[in-house]
Amino acid sequence: MKHPIILLPLLFLLILGLLVWHPWRHGDLPAPPPTLTAEPATAPIGADPSTPEELIQTQEEIYGSKPASPDGIGKVYMDREISHVMGHEGINWLERWTREEEEAPSKAIDVLNLKADAVIADIGAGSGYYTFRIAKLVPEGQVMAVDIQPEMIAYLEAKEEELGLNNVTAHLGSIDDTRLDPESIDAALMVDAYHEFSHPREIMESIFTALRPGGRVILLEYRAEDPNVPIKPLHKMTEAQSIKEMEAVGLKWETTHDHLPWQHLMVFSKP
Ligand SMILES: C[S@@+](CC[C@H](N)C(=O)[O-])C[C@H]1O[C@@H](n2cnc3c(N)ncnc32)[C@H](O)[C@@H]1O
Q1: CA quadruple 126, 129, 131, 132: dihedral sign
Q2: What confidence tier does 120 reach under pLDDT thresholds 50, 70, 90?
Q3: Strands 63-65 and 72-77, how do they pair?
Q4: pLDDT at residue 9 above 50?
């Protein structure tokens, strides 16, 4: 009967040895998988967690290229070559005194039907020719004057101060993002600007996101169907082309006003 008593310390030592050797104590377990913290640098267009992968389009699938025309950048969107951006040196042309006679902006503004408290984004505002005229119609609202050229932003800010207005915000966007908050605007106005956006799909997606449900896009483009409109070809758009490009981001065409001397005034809505 002596054997079990002698074996007890040996059994104790064996259990202790097993505990000391256990992989937890030695860090022998495989490391947990690393946590993914960084977003991809540039997400593909249309990429959001709910978009099936086969619907996500890349830049190469959305845009084509061709040898650049004299007034174009050689980048093609939905069969249309995108035009050059008009530099800030063109401010005097935008503000020319003959503009009312040539383009009748006051007749365009007449049909906009803006509520006094509406928030309107003037995308590609330039010198603010439309921005400051619209600001008077929304005294309880706001005009977000969006442009990508810092010189235009500086001009807009100086002019707002000169006119003593407090419902205009000059807002610097980027070539592919208006940087407007989601569901923050009632309407987006684009006058003689959309045809020169280098990333039209991304800008329109960003506008779509910024619009409140039922919000409107008001697009003014020189009529490409009319050879008598004295504007370079790539700075004009047909109505059919404009509708095709707006519908590509989910906007619904509502109506086209053709009462202006040179431009289509097209209205779209966010369903
Ligand atoms: C021809 S000007 C028209 C200005 C103004 N809408 C008017 O009718 O007087 C076009 C403006 O669009 C701006 N622009 C070009 N690409 C843009 C973009 N992606 N986002 C915002 N503005 C842009 C240019 O900087 C330029 O000031």
Answers
A1: positive
A2: very high
A3: antiparallel
A4: yes
- Cβ–ligand 1 distance for 94 under 6 Å, the answer yes
Q: The whole model's pTM is what?
A: 0.82
Cα–ligand 1 centroid distance for 183 (angstroms) = 22
How many angstroms does the Cα of residue 11 sit away from the middle of ligand 1?
85
d(CA 223, CA 230): 10
pLDDT one-digit tens code per residue, 145-199: 999 999 999 999 999 999 999 999 999 999 999 999 999 999 999 999 999 999 9
C-alpha 124 to ligand 1 mean position (Å): 3
Q: Measured between alpha carbons, how far is 271 from 269 in angstroms, rounded to an integer?
A: 6
Domain count for the chain, please give it: 1
Ligand 1 neighbourhood includes 197 CB (under 6 angstroms): yes
Q: Is residue 33 part of a domain?
A: no
CATH code, 73:
3.40.50.150
Inter-CA distances, 34 with 25, 29, 41, 49, Å: 22, 15, 19, 21
Domain interval for residue 215 = 59-269
Q: Is the separation of the CB atoms in 133 and 93 below 8 Å? A: no
For the Cβ of 86 lying below 6 angstroms from any atom of ligand 1, the answer is yes
Segment 233-259 shows an average pLDDT of 98
Give which of 267, 261, 269, 209 is closest to 98, Cα–Cα.
261
